[in-house]
Amino acid sequence: MDTIYKIIENCEVKKVGERQYEFTASTADMDRDGEVISVDGWDLKNFKKNPVMMFAHNYNTLPIGKATKIGVKDGKLMNVVEFPPEGTYEFADTVARLVDAGYLKTQSVGFIPKKWEDGDWTEEDGKGSKPRRTYTKQELLEISIVPVPSNPNALMNAVKEGVITQKQFKSITEPEEEKPKASKTSQEQIVDELDYLELMLQENGVNDKAKDILQRIAESYLDAIQDATIPVKDTTKESLTLLSEIIKEQIGG
């Protein structure tokens, strides 16, 4: 069965430590779909191996925290969310401020049902002696802190009251994918790589399959040398020129 997501809206959030908050992730109450999740049926083993906390089930961004504690308490699935130290991750800081100020107090669980029992509750009349479905065994995959869909003005109030900025509001409502920053390579490193490639060519030669690739490499090296808009040091030019000549020799050009 596919992963199912369930939201428990507007639960009490309790601050239990520095950047640590206790949330209710799930209860045994029947939801608007007429379904119940048995709190005694939670399998938390795999979740505890990597208890990261996401935002709105967005897997294209980094986790905003971790669950330092999770378990059944007073008939509810409870968890303690710890946010990273302030300044570590700006988006997590924004979520933490909203949680602390009471604007975000909702979590959503993602789980795989293992066992369930169907009842006679129907959505049409909202009646029945038993819930439409009761999940009796389920594996927890992930927990997310989520904004409440039915109350879009709540976060705007946070902006008006100065809890977050308009830019931070946008990062919450329109989260962007985290893109890794490109690492910078110095020309000294490039020269080292060129020298290594030159040595490998001289010692091992080249087979037929690599000739076309080497031809393109040689041409691109020469283009880089001749392009006045690309700042290339003299030492790099020397290595590029020498390697281009060796490549031409190897491919018979």
Short synopsis of the structure:
Helices cover 34% and strands 26% of the residues. The chain has 253 residues and is an alpha/beta fold.
Spans of at least 5 consecutive residues whose pLDDT stays below 50 are: none
Distance between the amino and carboxyl termini: 60 Å
Number of helices: 7
Class based on secondary structure composition and strand pairing? alpha/beta
Supply the number of structural domains: 2
Q: Sum up the overall morphology in one term.
A: elongated
Major β-sheet, in short? 10 strands, mixed
Topology order in helix (H) and strand (E) letters: EEEEEHEEEHEEHHHHH
Fraction in beta strands = 25-35%
SS elements, strand count: 10
Helix content: 25-40%
Record keyword descriptors for this entry.
26% strand; ten-stranded mixed β-sheet; elongated; 253 residues; alpha/beta
Characterization of this structure:
The protein is 34% helix and 26% strand. It folds into two domains: 4-173, no CATH class; 187-251, no CATH class. The model has no long low-confidence stretch (mean pLDDT 80). Strands 1, 2, 3, 4, 5, 6, 7, 8, 9 and 10 form a ten-stranded mixed beta sheet that branches. It is elongated. The chain is α/β, with parallel strands linked by helices and 253 residues long. Helix 5 runs parallel beside helix 7 (234-251) and helix 6 runs antiparallel to helix 7 (234-251). A hairpin with a 2-residue loop joins strand 2 (14-17) and strand 3 (20-27). The protein contains seven helices and ten strands.
Chart the SSEs and their pairings.
Layout: E1 4-8, E2 14-17, E3 20-27, E4 35-37, E5 42-43, H1 45-49, E6 52-55, E7 65-73, E8 76-82, H2 90-100, E9 107-118, E10 133-145, H3 153-160, H4 166-173, H5 187-204, H6 208-226, H7 234-251
Parallel strand pairs: 4-10, 5-10, 6-10
Antiparallel strand pairs: 1-9, 2-3, 3-8, 6-7, 7-8, 9-10
